[in-house]
Amino acid sequence: MWFQLSNDILRASQWQRGFCLVLAALLAACDGRQSALDPAGTGAESIATLFWWMCGGALLIWAAVMAITLYATQAHPEEHGIRSARWLILGGGVIFPVVVLTGLLIYGLMLMPQLSSSEDVSMRVEVSGEQWWWRVRYRTDEGEAIDLANEIRLPVGQRVAFSLTSPDVIHSFWIPSLGGKVDMIPGRTNQLVLEPTRTGSFRGACAEYCGTSHALMAFPVVVMETAAFDEWLAQQAQPAQEPESALQRQGQHAFLSNGCGACHRVRGTEADGTVGPDLTHVGSRLSLAAGILPADIDAFQRWIGHTGEIKPDVRMPTFGMLPNDQLTAMAHYLKGLE
């Protein structure tokens, strides 16, 4: 008997540990820089509220169905009359779910206008999803365009309108902590309005399968105080700084002589390509290759020499045939573009 009791206690404790682990994993998934349930924007707050109301509605419907089941099979297992059975089925199985789901639908539809309304926006940002990176363009009050890539920074407390499109396949723009997702469709421009409510670093991603390297298409999002954001944007509008060291000058020469300027633009130099990302200030970005590598010298060298291995089917050619000293010099040059 004692042996059986010990086994029962052991099995119970194992079950409890397992339950605690699952609960901890579920709760941990509600937090973080890519969590829709840890909102940092007005849009995300509305979506999170809708989610919890939907969970509550689902719980009510489940409770009603379970109550009917217990009533029919346990509380009163005898044969029911046609009239009482009809009321159980129609009331608990049809009318109640329809009322709850209709209420949730109306509430969800009421949220949609505020997520796309462009009233009182302080800035417009154009984002193009491409295989497999993000072309970003800020529009200033004077109409000037400031081109970046694979990184978005926003001022806290201000409404920003995003114009979203794609030149190749369908992508989906999503920053879970700030708002909802919107598809980027070739030949069409969709709009999304975000209003960050707190500063911090978040993660955006493509939420629509778009090809081989779909999972390698992310971007960091930084929400900043307004003064810091204005200073950052003014710095991004400046042309590239001149190489400071002999190694950086050697890297600039290698960059231009190997044809990199045909695809990439570095404002203030001969490089004026528009096919690939703008690299004018690439050294100051938080990541490289659409959020999959750190923006350090080693990562720059790896990316230039092993592009296809890091991101399969990427359109940028691999320059692994170049001498190692050229790759190193180019990495130093690009990192120096801050």
Automatic annotation (TrEMBL):
BP-aspect Gene Ontology terms: ATP synthesis coupled electron transport
Primary location group: membrane
Domain of life: Bacteria
Statement: the UniProt record of this protein carries the keyword Heme: yes
MF terms in GO: copper ion binding; cytochrome-c oxidase activity; heme binding; oxidoreductase activity
Domain Cytochrome oxidase subunit II copper A binding: 120-235
GO cellular component: membrane
Membrane topology annotation: Multi-pass membrane protein
Transmembrane regions listed in the UniProt entry: 51-73, 85-110
InterPro entries named in the record: CcO_II, CcO_II-like_C, Copper_CuA, Cupredoxin, CuRO_CcO_Caa3_II, Cyt_c-like_dom, Cyt_c-like_dom_sf, Cyt_c_oxidase_su2
Keyword match Ion transport: no
Location of this chain's protein in the cell: Membrane
Gene3D superfamilies reported for this sequence: Cupredoxins - blue copper proteins (2.60.40.420)
Residue span(s) of domain Cytochrome c: 246-338
NCBIfam families in the cross-refs: CoxB
Function: Subunits I and II form the functional core of the enzyme complex. Electrons originating in cytochrome c are transferred via heme a and Cu(A) to the binuclear center formed by heme a3 and Cu(B).
Family of the protein in this entry: Belongs to the cytochrome c oxidase subunit 2 family.
Protein name as it appears in the record: Cytochrome aa3 subunit 2
Organism encoding this protein: Stutzerimonas stutzeri (Pseudomonas stutzeri)
